[in-house]
Write a structure and sequence with these properties.
Keywords: Biotin biosynthesis, Methyltransferase, S-adenosyl-L-methionine, Transferase. This protein has a domain at about 5-155 and about 180-205 and about 270-275: Vaccinia Virus protein VP39 (Rossmann fold). The chain has 10 helices and 7 strands. The chain has helices at about 5-20, 20-25, 30-40, 65-70, 85-90, 130-140, 160-165, 180-190, 210-220, 235-245, and strands spanning about 55-60, 75-80, 100-105, 115-125, 145-155, 195-205, 265-275. It has a 7-stranded mixed sheet, sandwiched between helices. The longest helix is centred in the N-terminal third of the chain and has 14 residues, at about 30-40.
């Protein structure tokens, strides 16, 4: 059965990201990392000499950090679209080489004409769409024939330490269900794209403790599990047991005898570059 995000689920996502718009930039180390990787890939598509594009779409632009960089490469214009009005308000405060067309909209039903953009950039947004195929079909529709889409998303294995720690405590879902790379591939194939390249990377970040990880996810708006069964707030006892079960670093580094008290969280990053075949 295909799992579909409800209207209520989308509203919750928009609200949670909206509430995080002010704290987002200070906590977005993974998002900056993956967005910079995507920007490097831009040089490999479109006008290879200048890596410029005519009309670009930043799909799920968030606070506009990468919109700002894309705007320097947009020859004809750029659309910055996000589900969250608060994220857009925040993004509008930056200065842009080309002022974007701001659109509050949903990746599942883009309020944009077909064949209107020749490059779509989307950094760490599509893991929030369901079904992914619907969002990718929309992206395909909006792209001009021969146009490209570069996106990054998180796949299965992301936050596995947290997921496994919670699994020792209860059967609730505390981390969103990430797709596998094969499922993502299936979605872009169904949408009609051909692949230029794809790359998976395991990225680990250190945290002082599990509270630090939880705070960062909250400040990014990424702590929401939209269709989690609401059995009340997580109790202190459950939280304490989950923290105790979270994989701990070795007590001390062999040889140096120095203590390394930081925990780690793993993110499985999937970066994909797609092409809408010319003449389609
Ligand atoms: C992790 S942030 C990434 C923001 C930005 N791309 C960046 O690199 O910093 C995810 C963004 O996707 C937006 N988003 C989530 N679901 C969306 C949807 N269905 N349509 C459009 N935007 C969506 C959120 O509001 C949020 O701003």
């Amino acid at each position: 059965m295909i799992s579909v995000l409800t209207l209520e689920g989308r509203e919750k996502i928009a609200k949670t990201f909206g509430q995080s718009s002010i704290s987002y930039d200070q906590n977005a180390r993974l998002q900056r990392y993956s967005g910079n990787v995507l920007c490097q890939y831009l040089a490999q598509v479109g006008n290879r000499q200048s890596s410029q594009h005519n009309y670009m779409l930043d799909l799920g632009c968030g606070t506009g950090y990468f919109t700002q960089q894309l705007a320097k490469r947009a020859l004809s214009g750029i659309t910055a679209l996000d589900l969250s009005p608060e994220m857009l308000s925040f993004a509008k405060q930056r200065n842009y080489a080309t002022e974007p067309d701001w659109i509050c909209g949903d990746a599942h039903a883009l309020p944009l004409p077909g064949n209107s953009h020749d490059l779509i950039f989307s950094n760490l947004v599509l893991q929030w769409t369901k079904p992914l195929t619907l969002a990718l079909k929309e992206a395909y529709r909006v792209l001009t024939p021969g146009g490209h889409m570069v996106f990054s998303t998180l796949i299965q294995g992301t936050l596995d330490e947290l997921k496994q720690a919670w699994a020792t405590v209860d059967n609730d879902r505390h981390v969103i269900d990430y797709l596998t790379a094969a499922q993502v591939d299936c979605a872009w194939l169904q949408a009609g794209f051909t692949q230029v390249f794809a790359h998976t990377e395991s990225v680990e970040f250190p945290y002082t403790d599990v509270n630090h990880l939880a705070r960062e996810l909250k400040h990014l708006g990424a702590s929401l599990v939209s269709d989690k069964s609401q059995k009340g707030l997580t109790g202190k006892d459950k939280w304490r047991r989950m923290v105790a079960a979270y994989p701990q670093p070795p007590a001390c580094n062999a040889g140096t005898n120095t203590h390394n008290s930081q925990i780690h969280a793993t993110y499985q990053l999937y970066t994909v570059c797609l092409n809408k075949p010319p003449g389609d």
